[in-house]
Design a protein that fits this description.
Four copies of one chain form a homotetramer.
Chain A: H1 3-19, E1 28-34, E2 39-42, E3 58-60, E4 66-68, H2 77-86, E5 92-96, H3 99-106, H4 116-119, E6 128-129, H5 134-156, E7 165-168, E8 172-177, H6 180-203, H7 212-223
Parallel strand pairs in A: 6-7
Antiparallel strand pairs in A: 1-2, 1-5, 2-3, 3-4, 5-8, 7-8
Helix pairs in contact in A: 1-6, 2-5, 3-6
Chain lengths: 232, 232, 232, 232
């Protein structure tokens, strides 16, 4: 992929966050990576989505050195880079403060799988990552945010592309995918699923997750080896 | 009706789902049938609503054989076909994951009739269809989803056009009507009614359904033999 | 006022209901009256807001005789007419099924005055009108809906222009004002106030109405003889 | 700054309130001050946002004398002026009745800091200002509203630009900032943060504020001397 094509894709993913109501003001960012070139493109920090142009995206290497761009990259860049370094299978990362996903994150609660909408995304809870310790916050807040995600996933044996998004305790959602566009779609899915979970639990306090055989079926018809959802 | 007219109608019904905020990403589909020709037109699977054109709708016979179209039909096609085969009086079917209707479905709860907005739609609870068994899920998930709806309606003695929509346990709403457009309107009504029911029950925990004589009056002034709502 | 001017005003009031998100499908109607001519203009029944033109409004006298128009008037016309006959000071009436106001109506609950937004509208609870009896429903549902509002207002000593809107038990909100436009604005205010009341009560269960001296001050600075809100 | 530049900025801040869904009808106002000239520009009272033009803004001195403009200034003008007089560091003030912030105000509840979205705004609760006494309401309601904010801030040792917004008991939010635009952005932030707090507390009743070391880190990375959020 040429860098220009990646630039368009990352720019579009950023704009979609706003159009889908996931980002207020500058509370969100999307990035994408060209694995061959080792180049990450990410939103500049604190720049209004109304004013941002494709050329404003900042190009970095995986160690965070700026390769191109006059603006400072998103303050969350170290989190994005940590995920790219740990997980070679991902190609895009998104962070938002979308309302219901953030509400669950603030409550330090994972999102239970109450139905098939959720099961189409992942086959169990949307994970809630542990809070950082005071030391981790002081030392390198954003890089350690990435570290906490990676550690929690490793500990629980979760594969990044099977659970393509998580909630950061006290903070909000991060999502990822094979491309920046997929990561942005996953941000929208997490918000929708979190909202429905919130409502279902208010309708039926003490609600249990749906039966595992339904979850599995839905997940596999969309993502399994014999998936038959979507076009070939 | 010419197939082209049906095509426009089914296409429009699909687009209305998005415009009315009932569908996120590709989480929904509408179909319509030409009973004379025995042809069903349905949304292609996993195709973005932004990119979809009327010509992308897939034409099938009632056994699911593709008659026309280059794309795969919606993965929910067997549910649509089962309803068309069982209920000759319906001409359109819609499935969405709209927020409040899905929240009730996830809670495996029917929607009680708390007011006249609901009574204008149907004269009692919006039914919640039983969950499929593990065997039914494994064997033929989508076709058995249709079977469960049809069985529950038969068991409860509900007429499809008098209860033109139901919630699938753990899943979401299906609706239908004489046309695809009517089915799409019913999807919007179910979502609105479910939202109001959710709020009313939070305002007054333990709320009872409205008196039956009010429900009956409202239902009949719109749908009964002496209906006087709307134009002749 | 010429009938054409009234026609534009009533048409605009109807459209505003949709634009302000108070009306889904055809669930609402606005009317206005020319007191000099004794003519009421009202939305036709069950006609889509997208297709409606100013010329589609139906002209009636206060007894409900159609003076002009090819379409049937709103099925709620007898309620509108009852209010116009009882209350000579009002010039417009609106009915909607807006979400939060309807949720309170379904819960048969008035809306307590929790803050100054409410106090700018009326100086105490937004009243919830009693449910109709079975006999009243059977005999003349819509006319008796008007009768119930008028009786409850008389019994409680409420002046229509000081409490320019009420909730009908099990049903939804009606509002009115000196003009159709004022009635439409009051419909929007009732919905906003009901939503805020719903949220406040969830934040603070057992919440009491705000102190009466604050309510009075806010109401009077906008509506009292020494009002200083707005332009002269 | 020329008065024309301030006029554009204050006008834009007012319009943004509507575009961001914070203001219904005329329930809100923004002002800005030119400290050099001692001139405040503020929205005229009760004028529709649809009809308002930049030239309709009213110019006042800090004592409330109208310097320019044919319309009456916002009825909340004395509150704005009190804040400008007490706090020389602020350049803009905004008042709205936005839904969730007002719901908290009506519940006389501050908004606890449940997460980093909040911490990016201020480093502890969003304060809820005491209710006015009956005497204060009768004597000079709007001026005393400003007085109550200023007194509560002084008593609690809060700096206006570190807590750039507060809830008025029974009423709604006021916000401020170095400019009218910053005050308008703060109004949007308060609404978003209040909504998320509402949801988080419903997800996890009894939820405690997030650890102070996370709050401090987020606040300081955006507002502290070593802030690294945004562009230089």
């Amino acid at each position: 992929m040429s860098l220009q094509k990646l630039r368009v894709e990352v720019f579009k993913a950023n704009i979609e966050l706003v159009e889908n109501g996931l980002v207020v003001l500058t509370w969100g960012n999307a990035s994408g990576i060209d694995r061959g070139k080792g180049v990450v493109l990410i939103k500049p920090s604190g720049v209004s989505y109304d004013d941002m142009l494709p050329g404003d995206l900042v190009a970095l290497d995986l160690d965070g050195n700026v390769l191109e761009g006059k603006l400072r990259p998103s303050s969350d860049t170290p989190t994005h880079l940590a995920l790219y370094r740990a997980w070679p299978e991902i190609g895009g990362v998104v962070h938002t403060h979308s309302t219901f996903a953030t509400a669950y994150a603030q409550a330090c609660s994972s999102v239970p799988c109450y139905g098939t909408t959720h099961a189409d995304f992942c086959a169990s809870d949307i994970p809630c990552i542990r809070a950082l310790t005071e030391e981790e916050v002081e030392e390198a807040y954003e890089a350690n945010t990435g570290k906490a995600i990676i550690e929690d996933y490793a500990r629980a044996g979760l594969k990044p592309l099977e659970y393509p998004g998580a909630l950061l305790s006290h903070h909000g959602p991060f999502s990822w995918g094979k491309t920046a566009g997929a990561a942005a779609a996953n941000a929208l899915i997490m918000e929708s699923v979190a909202k429905m979970a919130y409502l279902s639990r208010n309708i039926a306090p003490g609600l249990r997750p749906e039966p595992e055989y339904i979850t599995r079926k839905h997940y596999l018809r969309k993502h399994g080896p014999g998936a038959y959802y979507g076009q070939k």
